[in-house]
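--- STAGE predict ---
source: upstream dedup step, 1 unique chain passed
mode: sequence only
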Amino acid sequence: MHKQQQNRAGATRPTALAMACRMALATMALAAAHGARADSFTLDNGVEGRWSLNASMGASWRAANRDPALVSAANGGTAGVGNGHDDGNLNFNKGTAYASGPKATGELQLKRDNLGLFVRANAWYDYTLSDKGVAHGSFNNGYVPGARLSDQGFYANTGFSGAALADAYVSGEFDVAGKPLNVKLGKQVVNWGESAFIPGINAMGAFDLTAAHRPGAQVKEILRPLPQLTANLGLGDGVSVEAFYQLKWEHTLFDGCGTYWSLVDSLNCSGGAVVFGDALGNDQKQYNGVPVLAALPPALLNAVGAGALATVPFNFRLGRAPDATPKNSGQFGLSSHVFVDALSTDFGFYFANYHARTPVLSAVHAPSPAPSLYSGQYAAQLTALSKVLGGLGQAAAAKQIGMLGAIPGTELTWDYDATNIQSLAVSAATELGGVSVFGEASHTQGVPVQINAPDLVVGSVLGLGPQAALARWVRDPSVAQGSVSHGYDLKNKDQIQVSALKLFGPVLGASSASVLGEVGFQHWSGIGDPATSTRYGRGFLYGFGPTAALGGTCAGLNGYAPYCENQGYVTTSAWGYRLQGELTFSDVYAGINLKPKLFWSHDVKGYSGDGTFVQDRQTLGTTLRADYNNRYYAELSYTRYNKNAKYDVLHDRDNYSFVVGVNF
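--- STAGE serialize ---
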């Protein structure tokens, strides 16, 4: 990927933006003048080709005020005790743009005889993220209010501008004993199963969520191509088999820290995290540090050899160790399709073995950079000071300083290291009474499910709470540096989903219409009562729920009473549904077509271990698209979320977007 060099002074940013705009406008003008569109060609050597290009310009704005319950108390909100989820929320106010700029996707297909080549590339420039300052900041830009965000250290192809090769593979069509064999080698998408909206067996693949959140995103930009070898063999009589072997492990791409859709402040970020430090103030103060011991008498500090600590600006910057990643080998799959004429039904059978695509948070026995209280550097002096304060009758201060002294050297890591996740699935697709009906059922073993983050950090760092067993280095000083306490348990998931699609002719004044719906249900193994057993899910910002390991209460542990409950954790079962309707008004005026679309998503009950369902999460999306001669188009969309979905960390991110583009 070509990535523009960071320029904190911003000297080159307007030039880059102007160049991108000129390129987009020039290409549109060229298309208008010469009638350019996706086209085919033949070279002198017999190579046949086809190319296409989509270019667009768009912007997205926040449409709702932030919910104080999704902002930590230290940062001016009311949420629990953690500061790990709110940077993106604080950086963009209602009515401000959170993304804007041009993007383009180009495709080229070549074929000669039985051999072929397919290449797709993407390019983008986000003016808002590249050139505009934000109110709060992120770990990457040092939490400097008003400064631009930084994409330094982001995952490849998730920066604020760039160009990247997406699909790139060679293919061949062969005859094997009279049977057709199609083979592809290179970066490509394998999208198995019959999922419409709810991920099923296709969860074996990776997604590009950063691309999904750019204005005007297309599905082909969201499915991430992986380097792999695939083969499809037709056996005749409606039977085929397909297999893949992935040559390199790749993960799902997440939005960078501080951006509007950032899920966790330290995910896709070059730095670490600021957590559990409300007493020291907001993110800026905790990042820069506070001289916690400045008020203590110098003589007292000198008595325990801690005189120099009076001016140390302690902070709660929990360092981030490098991502834990799995091996490249061992990812493969096999599928078969059988079409039964008597039932007019296609049946699919699938098996896939793959490694984790999304991370969990784990703890590492390694010092965070000083003067972090997670560095372990000050443990001896703080412990000695605690004992002195206790002897002087200052019990409260002694307890607080003692807890700080008990913190060992600890960092966090984003852990993708769960390997050999195995999925078995069956699917069916048919037509009943003019309605296309399709669905799948799957069983997946070894899915890593995140242990509750507050429990994980307090357990790993202090040896307290329901995850105290994770703090091996607290109990045993001989534990080697770099040792990892994995923040997940492996669970099994059963899932079933059914979809239906109905196409209509002229209706409601439209030339055609469609309605698509899907319902899904999940069941997870080994999920117990959150009051007495391991708790999974529920983010940092919600703080602690009551647990037997901490006396059955969260008094003193969670400063926001509404979150002091055992809700929002992963449940044994969960379900929800999705609906989409679209009308097409053809040739409304002088070749202009209109397509209004309505989308509704509702997670009815339960919290799933993979984030698919979050109880009460609701999404209403409306879109109006106008196109001229199927070449030029404009699209206006609005998305609204359910503010009462208490444990949906994005429930206040209502937004609207406007995009104009051209297809060549």
